[in-house]
Amino acid sequence: MSSRIETDAYGAIAIPSHVYWGPQTERSRTLFVIGAEKLPPEVIRCFGAQKAAAASANLALGLLPANLASAIIDAACEVREGVFDDHFPIRLWQTGSGTQTNMNANEVIANRANERCGQPLGARAPVHPNDHVNLSQSSNDTFPTVMHVCTLRAVFGTLGPSVERLQTVLSARAAEFHDVLKVGMTHLQDALPVTLGSEFKTWERQLDAAWAGIVFHTSALCELPQGGTASGSGVNGHPGFGQRVAEELSAFAGKPLRASRLPSQHMAAHDAFVGLCGALNVLASALLKICNDIRLHTSSLGGAPAMILPDEGLSSSIMPAKRNATVCEAVIQVCLRVTGNSATVLAANGAGALQLNTAKPLILNEVLNSIRLLADAQAVLAAGCVAGLEAKRDRLRHMLDRSPVLGAVLAPHIGYDAAARLTLEAASQGRPLRDVVMQEGQMSSTQYDACLAAAFDPDRHNAEPAEVPTGALNLGVAAEIQQG
Fold first, then answer.
1. What is the pLDDT of residue 463?
2. What is the rounded end-to-end Cα distance, in angstroms, of the chain?
3. Catalytic center residues
4. What was the pLDDT predicted at 460?
5. Residues near 437 by Cβ (< 8 Å), separated by ≥ 6?
6. Does residue 475 surpass a pLDDT of 50?
7. Is the separation of the CB atoms in 217 and 275 below 8 Å?
8. Average pLDDT value for residue range 246-272
9. What's the CATH number where 331 sits?
10. Cα–Cα distances in Å, from 467 out to 9, 178, 253?
C-alpha cells in the first residue's frame, strides 16, 4: 500500500496515501488498539454537522475568512452526509475527552477542504485542522456537544417512532379484546376477573409513561456546552460563538438548542445522560414485564394456553412444530443489556475529575446502544408478536367459570360464608360455580347472570380516567414537559 509522509508539530509520519485522515489520527489508530468497537456512524455525521456549524459561526463573527469557511463547510457537510464514514478508524477506547475522534474530524475535513482548493492530501494549507477547522473549539466542549445532538436525534428520530408503533399495536389489540373476560392473577394465583383488553391497555399506558419520562430528561440535552473550550472558561473563544453554533445545529438536531450559561456543567459531568438512562430503564422494565406477561399468557402450565403465539416459522431443534416465545426472549435480553448499559453510564459519569469527565466516548456509546436496541426491539415485538397474538376466548371463559374467585363476586349477594362453602364445593367437584349455585337454590339463573354481568361489564373495566390524557405517546404532555 502506498503512503504519503505528513508532518505536524510532533514529527513526520507515514499515512496511507488514499485516506483523508492526518497525523493525529494515524498515531491514535496505531496506539489505541483495544477491541474492535468504534463509535457508531451517526456520531461521525454529527461531527460533520458540528464542524459546519462552527465554521459558519466563526465566519459570522469575523474570525474565519469567507473562502476558508466555505471550503470547511462544504467538506463538513460531506462528512455529515456519510461520505467519509470509512475515514474514521479510531476505536471507541481512546482518550476520555474524545480528542482523537475530534481530531479525526478536523483532519478529514481539512484535507477534503484543501482538496477542494486544489491542494494534495496532507498539505495542511490553506485550511489547517487546528487553526481553522477547530477554531474557537476544544475537544472538551465539542465532543459533549456532539453527545447531546446525537442523542436527541436518536431519541426523537429512532426511539420515539418505535414506541409509538408498539403503542398503536397495543391499543388496537386492547380495543379488539375489550370484552374478553378472563381470570385476573395476583401472586400468580387466581384473582378477581379482568378483561384481556385492560391488560393490553395497561401495557400501552406503561409505554406512554416511560416515553414522557424520556422526553423530560432530553430537555437538558438541548443545552450545549459549546463555547466552553478546554475547561469551561471559554478562553480562546468568542462570547457569541456557543449560541451561534447552537442555533446553526437546531435544524439538524430537530430541537431548538441553546448555549449553556455554564458550559462546565456539561463538560465536567454528564448528569443528563444518567437521568436519561434512568428513563430508558423505565421503558426497558415496562417491556420486560410485557414480554414476561405474554410468556405467561401463552404458556401451557395450566394445560392449553389462553393465548397463542404467532407462527414465525421457527421451532425447536428437537421437538417439531414446538412454538416458543422467541421474540419475547430476544426483547428480554435487550432489556437486560439496557439495564447494564445504564449501570455503566452511572459509573462513568462519576469517573470524571474536576473540570472534565473523561469517559465521554463510553457514555455516548452506551446511551446510543440502548436507544438503538430499544427501538429495534419494540419494532420486532410489535410486528413479530403482539400484532399476531390470538386469544382463545372459549378457553379463557372456561377457566373463569371454574375459578374460585367468582365467589368474591357472589359474596355481597349471598353472604361470605355461603359463597365460601359453594366455592369450595364447586372446586372439589370440578364444576362451574354457576351449576352449584343453581343446584343449592341460592340464586336463580337470572339473578346469577345479572350479578356477573354487572361485575364484568367490559366498559367499566376499560373506562378511561377523565383526568388522564390519552393518545399515542401523549405528545401534548411530552411537549409541555420538554418546554417546562
1. 52
2. 57
3. 187, 316
4. 64
5. 410, 414, 422, 443, 448
6. no
7. yes
8. 96
9. 1.20.200.10
10. 66, 21, 33
pLDDT (tens digit per residue) in 67-121: 999 999 999 999 999 999 999 999 999 999 999 999 999 999 999 999 999 999 9
Cell of 177: 379484546
3-state secondary structure the chain: CCEEEEEECCEEEEEECCCCCCHHHHHHHHHCCCCCCCCCHHHHHHHHHHHHHHHHHHHHCCCCCHHHHHHHHHHHHHHHCCCCHHHCCCCCCCCCCCHHHHHHHHHHHHHHHHHHCCCCCCCCCCCCHHHHHCCCCCHHHHHHHHHHHHHHHHHHHHHHHHHHHHHHHHHHHHHHCCCCEEEEEECCEEEEEEEHHHHHHHHHHHHHHHHHHHHHHHHHHHEECCCCCCCCCCCCCCCCHHHHHHHHHHHHHCCCCEECCCCCHHHHCCHHHHHHHHHHHHHHHHHHHHHHHHHHHCCCCCCCCCEECCCCCCCCCCCCCCCCCHHHHHHHHHHHHHHHHHHHHHHHHCCCECCECCCHHHHHHHHHHHHHHHHHHHHHHHHHCHHHCEECHHHHHHHHHCCCCHHHHHHHHHCHHHHHHHHHHHHHHCCCHHHHHHHHCCCCHHHHHHHHHHHCCHHHHCCCCCCCCCCHHHHHHHHHHHHC
In a shared domain, residues 40 and 116 = yes
434 falls in which pLDDT band (50, 70, 90)?
confident
Overall number of domains in the chain: 3
Q: How many CA atoms lie within 13 A of 165 on its CB side?
A: 19
Q: Which domain holds residue 70?
A: 20-135
Residue type, 61: L
Q: Are the beta carbons of 346 and 277 closer than 8 angstroms?
A: yes
Q: What CA–CA distance (Å, rounded) separates 26 from 406?
A: 74
237 lies in the same domain as 256: yes
CB 177 within 8 A of CB 195: yes
468 φ/ψ sector (left φ>0, alpha ψ -120 to 50, else beta): beta
Pairing mode of beta strands 223-224, 11-16: unpaired
Q: Within this chain, do residues 108 and 147 fall inside the same structural domain, yes or no?
A: no
Per-residue pLDDT tens over the stretch 319-362: 888 888 899 999 999 999 999 999 999 999 998 899 999 999 99
**In this structure, are 301 and 178 located in the same domain?**
yes
CA 483 to CA 480: how far, in whole Å? 5
